[in-house]
Structures are given as structure tokens and as C-alpha cells.
Design a protein that fits this description.
The structure is a homotetramer of 338-residue chains. By secondary structure, chain A is α/β, with parallel strands linked by helices. Chain A contains 15 helices and 13 strands. In chain A, helix 13 links the parallel strand 11 and strand 12.
């Protein structure tokens, strides 16, 4: 007989280093008996073993209806990634009063910082300026700033207003940007409460001097920023693609950017790692490339660990989780993780 | 006899395009009779001619005591640069009740935006990441972020807290930075009112994860960031040099940065243009270089023109100027413009 | 056959004037077929009649498990009060994926404004000052301010941090108050994210210069501010009782206030209306009394109507409600409405 | 021979208790040799005695040109009141590079807090509600709130935007008020930078649901809110008179308020103390009266002492004063103190 509740830790592809530092381990083991599994998704035999007793699952363990039915003590599932995994029966968990939580809010600040840095780099020509200086072709002051634009007072558009948008907006606010957003999931009034004007997508594309693509991928919106849509983007806009490459026609996006139709920073790709021979590596010198590095730094994992400990403590005490994000069953079910 | 007051416009090195757009001209000429001179500093004969009648001088016209004595109707001098010119008798103008104003507040937002962009680029390795991607040596996610640091919750130091600092602090605030500053001109209480801890310079250098060099040059502080001082900077700090190169030992600064002692972005140089053969152009690939482009973009000149029109209107109506910065005679007199 | 979804409107004790203005009615009827009932709780026969078809219930209709079972199309319940009614099977509704929503967020701003007004009135002696002036016993300036205290920089404690607290904190922030809170339901980290220090109740009582009692009543916390607890309040603190009288020992509370042990404003009472003969009406001249007027003004009902229309639109479109508050089943079930 | 600079302290009507607490005295005496005089304006013989050596005058010592001429070491004058005294030659002091400073910024927070408290009390009927409760005539909830209005989203007008306005605006901001102001001394752009719309006075009177009279008295604006102007105030507006009674036709103001034309709170009077027999004491039961208690509490004097010490330290070190407000000679000269 065990006096402490059982936590099952199955965080792959998160590693032990990311989620199981000594202080995290100490905090968790003070509250619960923890069965950890690292390095791969836990084998079925281990999962079957813990189901009858487990109180909290931390990780991406597959949880179809049949498994939920065999986990009578399960109180919460903490997905320590930023996406909703397709292997969970979200409606079933909800019906059993088991919240499924994601760590997206803990990842969002780092992504927002990168998005802002990319936007300033595009608007102010930071990379081009550095290259020109090394080439001895730099021009000083306003002579070098013919194309420079600024976030101050600029019309800015957010495509999607979830965790990333909520982390980005406070960083943009002191620039006095006129902020607008398109998110079909949210009410215009909700956007207004966050100081954002709700705009139809085509208007947002046409009006924004800076455009942040922050939408996740669902079964319904894959590729919604196709070539025709991208053609509506305001000429010379600064476009930051930072959520998921699958929401755009990626080839068209790169073509437009390299043709000077708009400026672009790209942190996410349809295939990662990008093939060594991908031609755009060398040809697309106008695009700012980043190897999916916007969110995944130690600072984010520190936040994820803190959120995990905080919400496990809440849940084991019979209180609601406060740090992580609860799955909206209808949205989580159509989400396309990878 | 003239019914309208006389304004003398002598803005060189500011050009006609920078300060004399059609709408600006229309606004000014509705208030005053304007005598403009562009393309060079106004010749003495022209200056002598306008002195007896001039109400407002816009530009960098030399104004020693003797000229002030011959300008009985002069009410204000609007320097449309961001530095205090050494050719004005500041104490004399003050004694006559003639405010001398600079456009520094209008330049500061663009500089602050660039400073923030540089800081994020340094902390997150934006330029190195882009280069690695083109070279096919990029690493994804946390594997590529071994050196990445973030502004969120970071200790940040400002060296100097004038116009640039006041424009930068609001941009840093949403990151939750712990802000400190060193400015011998200001009281600790004043810094505290702006949410900054006052720190001795050596403590600031040792403590700050991000360091912004924002101090202007005066007769008293030239080179105050010498090699020994720079050696106190916290290892691997991100240092943004964006006010005036003369406040640092520039060679030592570049050496430390290239040696990996700290990360650096440099917008200002001891000599501009930088000589074509300056060796650091090619050797110092760890430094982010920018050709004095932080402030001088059209957005800033738009702000300067607006501030000029606003304050001319105030002054001609007998009201105090509100947009531009008034010279503090004691400080302006020791300032080292160029 | 009906093409539009059915909404049942059963808002008593909310009146037609509160929730069914012409523009609200027009907005609702554009989306749905509405069956309204005003003036009393809807009779069972009417409820039974709509159950098979109803998509959204707006109001306080009793919804035990058996009724939920007979409402196969029900998608949401919008309680247009600020409390959780005990007549709903919250766990059952949750299990069926039917969110139960309350209008508490729409009431909170008005209550927060009143709470702030009461706090300033207590701290600055507004009512006593007005009375003294009429009596000709006023004293001017600092002579009249011997007991005056100010919110600026003051230690402030919130007992409970739900909707009221979240509406009040932004109003207190510009005073630079040191904000602390006690709420056993919330994590200290959550409070810290809102800029509040988490404190044990007794510390909060002892430390706070201003104390706001904002906790709702549950089966577990009734009367938790008993005489002994109240005796721990910092001498001469300003205490605002504005959520529910049942959380305090009301008689002890009034006694302490009238004895000058602390200053108090009271908006809620154990029995409302207060009996005409209640002795404290005349004897307790040091207490600021308000007849449960903190939240219920037209401004609040305007917000409730707007939130109702917004969330009905979201729900009927298959999107999540954004304006009203979702019941946390475990908390709603123990809530003590009245 | 004296090694330390000389400070002359002549603060009457400020008392020793207000400006000379032990810690203040210790801080000042560590920096300077202090000659204090309390209880009356310093006699001429004492003033004459200190003039040749004095470095800083703290107080309201009369300083006509002749005295300034005999004070060759004088570096600054710190008026520890909130008004500009008429007994100083402001232009002469300015010409000599001697800043004259006032403590108005240190008084402003307390006044702003009181102004906000009065506004909420008027809008929400706090005093009337308390009286009704005692009389047993209270009505509950919305029945008692027929006349209640709220600051949230309300159009608010500031008459004058100096120290008081700058302290009040941050307190109003979280209410989402639409803020407008009238101040003939300031540019519309300056007001816009503070988030205020500039409005002609008559429009401000007609549009504002809440009106704050914050203007000081000058030779030019005395009585500018005469009966005709007051008649333009929006019906049932909440009007807070808190700067100086001399800017309004006081009798007309009270008449309008008592007639129910608008609601009013009054902290300042044409004659103070108000004569015992002033009829409005008893007749004007709709007006909220306060005996000039908005600013003068210990908190304000603590701020004044801190500002005094901070700026004396700056001045003696040859640095600019940062805490107190510098006289704008043109405005200070026409100011009507009392």
C-alpha cells in the first residue's frame, strides 16, 4: 500500500535534462511517488502497469478511451510540450473531469522575444547592415536607412492569437503599434479586451506593415495561407513565420520573400532538419533563417518545470491547475501536432 | 515693417529633405516669415543680417555672446540635431531667457528600437543562426541554443540615463528585466522613480547580463570605459554600444568582443566613415556591426519636424516649449558634439 | 421543424429591463429562436417543454442530472448572476461538455470601483470631513488630517482573489501599493504572476493598512473571519467588506469597527433588507454603510448583456465562450449562493 | 571661515514638524551648515545677515532683485509650498542661473487620490447612500442605483494639466476613461503624449461626465469659470473643485450644485476658514465638502522633505535638481499664491 499518489513521467521527446533537474525531482518526490521513463515513449507494458494507480501523467503517453477507462485515479495529464498530441481522447478525459494541460504558455515568452527580434531585424535591416559593413559597402545614417522602417506607431497584424500572441502583445505595446488580429476561434470582443482590432484575414494581410504568423495547425487550417493569400500581403511588409510552417504554402512564401515582395524571417520548416541540399539555403539571401530556435532554450524549460511542479501541487491538493493551459477539447481534437 | 516674426532656418548638416517638407514649410510659414539656408552652415553675412529681427533660430548657427547681444528679439534656439553644439554660449542664452533646445527626444525612439533589436540578436544568436543555416551547420531547437539567453527576468544595466535610456526603458519593461543604471548626473531617487536601481559603474559592469552604453560624451567622461573597466564586464554579457564611441576604449572593446569575453553590437565608431581598410571589418566576425544607422531614419526626421513645428508654435505664442529638450547650461557647455 | 437553435431565457431574479433591452433582443433573435420567461422562475411545465430542443439556457433554471439527461442539444448554460446557483449538477454538465457560465466578470468592475472609493473615503476621512464641515467643526489642511492615511505605497491585503480581486488590482496598481493576498484555492505562483504576494491569512490581517474582503461563500469557508481572526487586524486598518457578509462574524465586525479598532465600509449584510430596527443603523456612526449597491448598476447590466450576446454567438458557432466565467465544477458545487 | 555651504531654512507657514524631522535634519546637516528660522517669516535682519554666504534658500523668503544681487553664492531657492510666491524676482533669479523650485509634485499624489475618491463618491452616491441607510430609507442593488454612474469608459475632463493632472491621470487610466483636457499653456501634442485629447473649454464642459478643476490661479485666469461657463457643464456631471476656489464663480458653482444641475465636491474655498455662519454649510446638502484636506497630510510632507534633501544634494554637487518643479519664469510671475 502506498500513502503517496503516483505520478508517471513519460516526457519523450523531452529529455531528462529538460524536465528532471535535481530541484524539480526533489519538489516532485516530496509530493508523490514518481515513476519516470526517459529516452523513448514508455513501453505499453509499463503504461499498463501504472494505469490502475496513477494520479497524474506527465508527458505524451497515448491515452485512448480504453486506457482512460483503466485509470480510475487519474486526475490530470500534463503534456510538457506546446502542442496537443493526437493520441489522447480529449473529450473522454474531459468527461471524466481529467484536465489535459499543455506547456505552451511556458514556451511563449521565448518565442515572442525571438519574434520581436526578428521583426526589428527585418524592419531595420540588421543582417544586411552587418553584411554590408563587412563588405565595406555600408552607408551611414539616413543614407543607409532608405528601406528602414520602425515598429513605432506601425500597423501590426497577428495571424492567430493564442499563447504566442498573448506573449507578444505586451512586448509590442510600448511601441504604440496599432494592433490587429485574425483568429476565427475568438470573438472580436475578446480581441478588443486585449487591445486588438479584429480583422478579416485579407484585410489584415493588406494593411499590416508587420505581420506575425502565430497560428497553430489544425485539421481545418492547414495551408490556409496559400499563394493567392500571400499575394495580398502589403508590399514590403515584414513577415515573421514562427508558429508552424504547415499553415503557409512554404515554397510560395520563400519565393515572394526572395523576390522582394515582402521581407521574411522563418523559424519553422515543413521538414526539420531541412535537407542539406535545400536550394533556398544559398539562394534566398534576403530571408532571415532560424533553425526552429525561437522557443527551445533553457529559459523555456525552466519555465516548463516550474509550471509542472506548480500545477502538480495544485492538482494533488484538489485545487485547479493555474500555470499550464487546459485543452479546449474541440480545438485540441483537431490540432495537428508532430 | 513685418507683421510676422522672423525664423531663421540654418539646419546644416540636416538637409532640406530632412526638415523642410511641404507640410512642415506650410505650417511654419503660416506662423512666421522664414529665411532658410541649406547645404552649408549659413554665411556670416546672412547671420548678421537676420540677427536684429530674428525671433527663432532653427539649426546650428554659431551663437557666441556677441551675437546673442545683437539679437534682441531672439526667443529660442532649436537645434535640430541630438547633440549640444559647442558653438553656443549656453549660459548667456539662459541668462537672456532664451531656451536652447535639441531634438534628442525625437531621435531616441528609433535608437531604442535598434538597441533592443541588437540586444535580442546578441542574446539569441540571430546572426550566427542565419549564417549557420546558410552553411548547412545549423542545429535545431535547444541543440542550437546552447548559448542563447533571454531578456526575460535578466539583470540589465544602462550606462547613462538620458533621452536614450528614457526611450529604452519602456521597451524593456514588459520583459520583467531587473533594471539598473549608472549616471553620475542623476540622483538615485530619480532613477528609482523610473524603476531603475542606481549602481556604481563597476557593479553595473559586473552584474548586468545585458549592458547598454547610452552615455553622451562630455569633456569629463571621454574614454571612461577604458580597458580595465571593460575587463570588469560580466562574462558573456551582451553589450550594445550605441551612443558615442568616444566613451569607450574602442580597440579594447572590439578585442574583448572578438575574444568572446562578451558579445557586442556596435553602431558608432571613433571615425566615420570607418576607413575601408579597418581590419576589424573582416576579422571581428563575432561583433554585430551597424553603420550609425540606429537613429537616422525617416521616422526620426518626421518626429523632429513635428517637434520643431510644435515648439515654434508654443514659443511664438509666449508659451513654453514642450517637445524638444532644453539645454541644461552646465551640461551642454561640457558636451562634446561632433 | 426549426432552422434556428433554441434559447431559453429564464433569468429571474434578473428582470426583463436588466437583460432584454431592444438591442439585446435583436441581437439574440438574429441568432436563435428565443423562449423568454420573466417575473418568476420558469414553471416546470415550460422547462420540460423546451428541454428536448434547447441549445442554450440563459438564467438560473434548475438543472439536476435528470434534466440534463433530457436536454440532448444543450450546449451551454449562462447564469446571468455573479454567483453559482446550487440547483445545477455542475459535474454532470461538465461531463456532458456543457459549460456553465456566470456573469461575475461583468459585475466585478463596478464592485472594484466602489471598493476603491470606500477605501479612499475611509483612509482620508471623507464622510467624517463632510459631517464636520456641516457642523462647523472642520479643521483645515494638516490639522484636519491627523488620522488621514493614503493608499500610496501602502501595504494592501486582498482576502480572496477571484473576479473582484482581478478587477480591483489594476485600480490599485498606480498607487504603488504593496499588494498581498490570501486565497487557498490559488497557487502562490499564480498570485505572483498578478503581482501579489501570497500570505497566510493571519499575516495578511496583521500587515495590511487596507484590507479588502473579496471572498465568496462556500460550504467550507462560512464565517472563517470570526471574532478571533478579526482581532488580528492591524490597528486602524481600513477594511472594506464587499463580497458576502457570511464570511465574517458580522456582529463582531461591526463592534470592532465602532470601537475604533479598525475603520470599516460595509456593502453586504447577513440579512437584506436590513431590518428597520437594526440598532447599528443609528449607533455605528463610524462605519460607512452601503445597501448592497457596489455592483448592481445599469453599467453592470450593460456588461452582462454584452457578455451574454458575445458568448451565445461563440457557442452557437461551435467556438468557446470568452466573456463569461466557466464554472470550476469542484468550486461551483460548494458555493453558497442566495 | 566655513568649509560647508550655507543653507537658510525659512519655511513659514510650513512648521518645524513638517520640514525638519530628525532624519531630515541629519541629512541636511551632513551636507551643509543650516540656519533655520521657524514660526514666522524670517526677520529682514536675519535675511540680510545670511545673504552674502547663502548657497541654498529653503522656504518662502522674499527675494526681490536687490536681494538676489547681494547673494553672490546663491545656487537655488526651494519653495516648500505648492504655489509660486509673488515675492520672488523669477526672471532675475533665472538670469543668474538660480533655479526656483516648488514642492508641488510632492503634494500632487495626495490631492489626486482625494480627487479620485471624491469623484467615485459623487458618481456612486456614497455619502447619500450612507445617510439613507442611517435614516432607514435605503434601497438595495439597482433600486438604490438609479442615479449611479461609473468612471469606467466615461468621458472625463481635466481643467488644467499641471502637477495635479499628471498625478491624477495614472489613477484614472485603468478605468478606461476617455480623457480630455483644457490647458491654454500646453500644446495639444503634449496632451496627446499623455493620452489626453485637447479640447476647447466649452466643449470640455459640455462633454465630460466627470470634470476635475485642477487649474492654478494666475493674474490672467481668475474667475474664468464664471456663471455662464458653469451653465455649460453637462447635466448631472460630477465636478471636483480641488485646486483653487478663485478660478470659479464660487457662489454660482454652489448654487448650480445644490440645484441638482451637476454634482460637486469642494475642497477649496474663497475664504479659509469658511466663516462659521456661511449659509451653505447647512443648506447645501448635495455638495460634498472637504476643508482643504486634499493635499496636506503627513504623507505629503514626508514627500516634500525627501524631495528637498534629494535636490539640495544634487544642487550642492553641481548637478541639476530632479525632484522638485522648476519655475517657468513667465508663468510663476503671474501666479497668484496666497
Amino acid at each position: 500500500m502506498h500513502s503517496k499518489p503516483l505520478i508517471f513521467l513519460d516526457p519523450f521527446p523531452r529529455t531528462e535534462a529538460m524536465v528532471w533537474t535535481p530541484d524539480t525531482r526533489a519538489a516532485m518526490e516530496a509530493m508523490a511517488r514518481v515513476v519516470p521513463h526517459f529516452g523513448s515513449r514508455a513501453p505499453d507494458v509499463l503504461v499498463e502497469d501504472i494505469l490502475p494507480e496513477v494520479a497524474v501523467i506527465v508527458g505524451q503517453t497515448a491515452l485512448p478511451a480504453e486506457r482512460l477507462a483503466r485509470a480510475p485515479k487519474l486526475r490530470a495529464v500534463l503534456n510538457v510540450k506546446a502542442n496537443w498530441e493526437p493520441t489522447i481522447d480529449y473529450a473522454g478525459a474531459h468527461a471524466r473531469g481529467i484536465p489535459v494541460l499543455s506547456a505552451a504558455p511556458a514556451m511563449a515568452p521565448a518565442v515572442a522575444e525571438a519574434a520581436l527580434g526578428f521583426a526589428i531585424a527585418l524592419g531595420r535591416g540588421v543582417i544586411q547592415g552587418d553584411r554590408a559593413f563587412r563588405a565595406g559597402t555600408e552607408r551611414y545614417g539616413i543614407a543607409g536607412n532608405a528601406d528602414a522602417i520602425s515598429l513605432f506607431d506601425a500597423p501590426v497584424g497577428l495571424i492567430g492569437f493564442g499563447n504566442l500572441g498573448q506573449a507578444l502583445v505586451p512586448l509590442l505595446r510600448p511601441f504604440g503599434c496599432r494592433l490587429a488580429a485574425h483568429d476565427p476561434w475568438l470573438s472580436p470582443e475578446h480581441l478588443a479586451r486585449h487591445g486588438l482590432e479584429a480583422k478579416p484575414l485579407d484585410d489584415l494581410l493588406a494593411d499590416s506593415r508587420y505581420l506575425f504568423i502565430l497560428a497553430g495547425v489544425t485539421a481545418e487550417n492547414e495551408g490556409f495561407l496559400g499563394r493567392e493569400r500571400l499575394a495580398r500581403i502589403r508590399p514590403d511588409a515584414c513577415v515573421v513565420l514562427i508558429s508552424r510552417a504547415e499553415v503557409v504554402d512554404f515554397e510560395a512564401f520563400l519565393d515572394f520573400a526572395q523576390a522582394g515582395r515582402f521581407r521574411a524571417a522563418v523559424d519553422v520548416f515543413p521538414e526539420e532538419p531541412v535537407p542539406a541540399a535545400a536550394p533556398f539555403r544559398s539562394t534566398h539571401d534576403r530571408v532571415l533563417f532560424s533553425a526552429h530556435r525561437a522557443g527551445g532554450l533553457e529559459d523555456s524549460y525552466r519555465r516548463i518545470r516550474a509550471a509542472m511542479v506548480e500545477d502538480v501541487r495544485q492538482i494533488l491538493a484538489g485545487r485547479p491547475p493555474m500555470a499550464m493551459q487546459r485543452a479546449e477539447p474541440a480545438l485540441a481534437a483537431i490540432s495537428r501536432s508532430r
